[in-house]
Design goal:
The structure is a homodimer of 430-residue chains.
Chain A: E1 3-10, H1 14-25, H2 27-34, E2 36-44, E3 76-79, H3 86-97, E4 101-104, H4 107-123, E5 128-129, H5 140-147, E6 152-159, H6 162-173, H7 178-187, H8 196-199, H9 202-216, E7 226-227, H10 235-244, E8 246-257, E9 260-271, E10 283-291, E11 294-301, H11 305-320, E12 339-340, E13 347-357, H12 362-372, E14 377-384, E15 390-397, E16 400-401, H13 402-414, E17 423-428
Helix pairs in contact in A: 1-11, 3-4, 4-9, 6-7
Chain lengths: 430, 430
Amino acid sequence: MVKKMNIVIVGLGNIGSYFYNYLNKNKNIIFNKTNTIPNILFVSAKSLSKKRNFNLPKKIWLKNSLSAAKIKNVDIIVELIGGSEGPAKKLVFAALKNKKHVITANKALVSKYGDQLSKIAEKNKVNFEFEAAVCGGIPIIRSIKEGLIANNINKIYGILNGTSNYILSSMDEEKLEYNEALLNAKKLGYAESNPDSDINGDDVAAKLKILTALSFNSFINNKTILVEGIKDIDQTDINNANKLGYKIKLIGVAESDSNKITQRVHPALIEKNSYIAKINGVLNAVIVESNPAGKTVLQGEGAGPGPTTSSLVSDLCSILRGNVKFPFVLSEKKRKFAIFKNIKDKKFSVYLRLDVKDKNGILSDITKIMAKNRVSVKRLIQNPTLNKKNASIIIITHEAKSSSFEKVLTVLKRKNYTVNHPKIIRIEKT
Amino acid sequence: MVKKMNIVIVGLGNIGSYFYNYLNKNKNIIFNKTNTIPNILFVSAKSLSKKRNFNLPKKIWLKNSLSAAKIKNVDIIVELIGGSEGPAKKLVFAALKNKKHVITANKALVSKYGDQLSKIAEKNKVNFEFEAAVCGGIPIIRSIKEGLIANNINKIYGILNGTSNYILSSMDEEKLEYNEALLNAKKLGYAESNPDSDINGDDVAAKLKILTALSFNSFINNKTILVEGIKDIDQTDINNANKLGYKIKLIGVAESDSNKITQRVHPALIEKNSYIAKINGVLNAVIVESNPAGKTVLQGEGAGPGPTTSSLVSDLCSILRGNVKFPFVLSEKKRKFAIFKNIKDKKFSVYLRLDVKDKNGILSDITKIMAKNRVSVKRLIQNPTLNKKNASIIIITHEAKSSSFEKVLTVLKRKNYTVNHPKIIRIEKT
């Protein structure tokens, strides 16, 4: 007898529509690969009457999406509503509780409730799959959970957001100011009308929290994470970085040092010739440093309906094949209450930039403040500003504790010779 | 009741020893990830008395490795003997016939007998896993079979051999001649005492054939494949390539054009600033172009006991979790008898190099030969050779059919003004 599994797709936006049409067209090939027929039993979305550029048979329309969780012959629910609360949350909790497999692309939901959801899935022996929630078409979750399962991961990092990377790349390549680059990104469909979470680092943070839990066998940690976005980066920074041999990238980094884990999202100066510095546009890249595999790099398209569907289907086929896995690699009982640390003791070199009034003794005062906080200068460039009234100072420091830079900044901000808010951008060795 | 699977490891060379020790140390973590105990029932190798730097309990020693296939409570056999014939072949065939799961790192065996073995595995509903056979620690096979399962792949290519890549990289970076670079590679353990298959392209060809079958849902094709190695590349070529803005790399490429598949392994000039040109040393990189995921890149360590063990354990965990898959993605009956084409009609730009006697009218004769065969010059550099008796001619051509270059070479070789054998290296756009 031929095996069949019944699927409900909830949410028919860009991604839901693409996925629905893909599945319709590729039923046979999926059967040939998994020995199981993927049968779309129902679809559900806000409005049946919304104009769509494809034909949606009325008989598969489910009015109340939440009811999918209780329909007996439903096997798999694909949640493509989005958002960490509301209908998406209700549906996914109800589905897993009712022993339905769940596939979701919802990083906000997974990074917030992933641990609770994982526990229910394990108890009920169903799959809770979220490959599409992190880096679109890059099979990074599957690689951590399956391809690299043998490995002790000590660092995972990369460029995890295409929108911000597009903005930084085009600021660099086309010499645009931040707002112009953002406008272009919106025009090209690379940024949503409300691009806040892409720009303020929240999107990267959600993905990083998921990757951290997967990589370090820990629970998701929402508290101990540094999140800085890109909106303070201007053309002067981009230009300075180039002169100094760097590119500016928004990175997400999780690493383990003496069994203590740090998570951080921030713009960073990255050596121009390094691999990461050359990931431009909407591309994503993830680097996994582990033992015994060494350094593994995965690169690809990080968003969009096509790449996201690639990941959704990969999750679907895993379920169709009966490949039941723990959602976060390890059994619930074996996941670690790992120690998470903030980065205040972590050492960085930084790029420090400030504009000051062009008067005697100021440079001496700045370096004194730095010395007092154990920050030493590696390189210093002083130039008159365009209006020639002030001086622009760029300092590349030697390594010092993160907390030391905070202290230096606090003092410098208060000085009456400081014209603009001084800023630091960490330098990341990759 | 706790699930347990019994494993026999056959072959205790570098990789077998590393894998055995890894498994001994990581039993618990593997159990926590798969819910199944990986129990080493037996190990077998050429000699029990061979000095090893680890303790091997006598009670798990199996004298006759082939008997593993017939022991009733054996579930999984890990074949690490190597070679496409002899004991490895006998063992793997016998194991699958007796419904044992098989894991192997043996690319020679898989590329030769993979189709037959796959058929037996499918019939007997056991896994036949060979992640470790292609690109060491890079989870490329799992990515094609699972992470990118949704995709229609139209091209897969990359740097698939660390030894040859190390040689070419060090010829470039340290300005070494081929033989010196090879000697260094041997000293550093990057080349075996007999490195023939790494250097003549056979190793890449074996990996490429496996990747081709996986990517295009076809059977393995051993006949229609171009295989050229790197031993004719000298420092002059490396130097010329640099001057022209290229690096020389040994690449493997499989692509589908109007449903016809070509497979080729050859050195290529690759634009200096492209991603592939920067993969240096013993690293491997695979690029998959597919729909709807787009372009996906996987990079990592391509060989060595650590990375290989990473892949073996990934296969093992898949079996322990009961993730039964078709070895070549699709069910046997659905795999395609695809059309494979040789590359004679495929168009390339090439680098053509020849030394000629420095006489009047020769250049005109060469360009006439080219024109007759529909090969046109894009760029030409003529310099006196070091001894000043001859002239060295480097031509970058426009695109022309592969077969046209063969004709040009045949004619040029016969000319009495030709001093050395003329050579061509294809230019690859990536």
